[in-house]
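name: query_chain
kind: protein
chains: 1
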Amino acid sequence: MTSSHLPAYSQDDIKQTLLEAGVSGTVYSLVMPESEAILSEVMDGGSQGREEGLLDLYREAWTQKQDALHETYFERWIEWSSPVVSFDASRFAFRYPTAGASEAIFKLMAEYAAQTSSFEPTIAIFDGEYEGFPAYADSLGVNVIRYARSEWREIAATVPPGAQFWISQPSAIDGMVWPHFGEFAQLLHDTNPQVELLPDLTYVGNVAREYSIALDTPNINQFLFSHSKPMGGYYHRVGGAFSTQEIPSLFGNKWFKNLLSLAWGNAMMEHFGVFDLPRKYASLQAEAARRAGALLGIEALAPADISLLAIAPTSEADPPALQSVLRGCADERVIRLCLTPSLATLIDPELGGEAAASLLARWKEAGLA
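structure:
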């Protein structure tokens, strides 16, 4: 992400102020004991042992046995996500393993930009969306238009024909499942069928309550997912893209993929259902929000749907550090904070690293421990 797209909360002074309260503006992946235990199991080769299990994945490349190893990962993701995500899997026949969501976002935008010659390529987003969307678009010379999400009914018909509308669900804007996703998808198709809708499902697996995402409108031809946030796998760089048509720039990914990360992702989904981990840590999310709210003077800070986040109403009296983490359009604006530093410390101070000791001391001093 280029410096022009770095948010205010990335500045050192603001970042430190937030970190002292056990939060951050950037949404960081939470490495859980489960994440590490499954990695150790995969590294040991599981029941087959390292020689016949993990190491065998890498041998005999000339047989091309590795070419199909990502197919199991996608089939498992379809099954794992099915309590939440519904779509016609046969329609999305092209499936590509990617280095998290970022590679998928960049490659899909690049393909789109390269194919447009009769009009200006344009990415449309709601105000406050994931910063990577406009950053990648800008790096490719693609125009970006922002819309107020509260006006979704009015703006559907105004998106330039041929544009792509990128959207996260659950939403990176406020950490909540956006209740109008399905209505918006259908309205966008009905009023503006030349606009494609591209859902980013990065936070599927981060929500404890039941909800659903239907990807059945004809304007959804591609979508992506990641294991970074739901499984604590940011540095494993594992995720994928589904498409109804071939994506040439991702074709080589059937060869150039991370077998260890795919094996880890498979094992995580095998051991933990789409709701299991956020439900297990829901009480700690609430406690982390309570403690961070007390240290920051935000009584209304409450857990978001996304298990890593907490949100609160905003006011004109918010100090600069909180002004820097405001998200969304004017009539939906909230304070959005990532709880990962506090969550890691509450789960196990060892996971909290060097910052855990000072955070524990602040909690004790404030009577929060």
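note: The radius of gyration is 21 Å.
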